[in-house]
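User: Second chain of the day. Same drill as before.
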Amino acid sequence: MNQDLQVKNLGNYLEGKKVALCVTGGIAAIETPKIARHLRRYGAKVTAYVTSSALKFIGETALEWATGKPVVKELSGLAEHICSEDIVLVAPATLNTINKIYSGIADDPVTTLIASALGTNKIYSNQVNPDFSGTEKLKPAILAPTMHESLYENPFLQKNLSNELNSDYGIHIIEPRLEEHKAKIPKIEDIVAETCNILNKKPSKILVTGGATPVKIDDVRIITNKFKGALAVEIAKEAYHRGHDVTLLLGKTGLKAPSYLKTIYHEDYDEYRDNVFKELSNTSYNAAIFSAAVADYTPVQKFDGKIPSLGELEIKFKQTKKIINEVRELNPDLFMVTFKLMAKISQEDLLSVARERAKHYQIVVANRNEDMKDAHTAYIVKSESMGGEIIEAHDKNDIAEKLIKEIEGQMKNKNRHSQKFI
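Assistant: Same format as last time:
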């Protein structure tokens, strides 16, 4: 391929996948070359399909450059409308195009392609496998509604977007950003993340915790640590892109997670603890990754109001409850990943501590504080039941990728042997 058309590889989530990027008539169409390029950075082969009105907002040449392929702007004897792609992404999706899709109208390359995709889903669900109950063979269609707020609130459009049969049809709706009285196209990273998740969909739920869990001294002051949850966000993103259903419990004083991740924020240790047990009691998780920097100590007494800032102050502390121990006691079969950070200790001693902890948890991620200054070297220590292997990782992305792959490997073993996931 011409060097100018190539993109930097960021991952293989969409390796070997074909994406039909459908562009309809709206000013947000100017974003579609960026979407195409970002999809390709994860390995996708992208073909652009356009309506005639779309070409009033974005040039054919720009789309051809972004995808590296000819743009389908009209149907011919080559039957371009018979969907051979793995997924159809309509971004932006106008009111006109969305309502035509739900009315079964196929009068341009975009609506005809989707009609073919939905028809393929019907064939798979009713003929190839009469007992079909999942989406493993569907050709999903993602719609990203983008228009003026008054159009977005149109009752006919809203009825279609909330159609309870959408999942049966293989239709997924990405919520727009509601700003300035407009339903704006979602962020590019959100669109690409949803595409990755849907194409890689797995029947698994993963809980990830991250960030600090401050303890209160009074109504104004807290004691916390330096960790913001960056690693937890990377782990959650990796799991989501690989198709898992992810819930992230994140400290409110840290980073803001991407909007495509289901995130529950906590303000302090008590709220974090409540959120952990609420999630584990209400949802059946296949794995839980506890990377939150949980407070080890809390004041014996929390002062009401604000302590006057006069002179010296002595505060007595007591140890907090070890949440991962409580979780293990209440959930003996849960696959658990815990983290251990130590300072001024040799690598050998760190790994010795990690191996001891791995007697109670499937994986322990061990870190030395001094190894986290320039990079983020970590050791993924597997329990003896998992082979006792130690895997070295060297940055947040590397840790996240290797960790999720280990969890997926155990899920496959569980399915293969039909035994408990422990």
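The CA atoms of residues 3 and 67 lie 13 Å apart.

User: Great, on to the next one.
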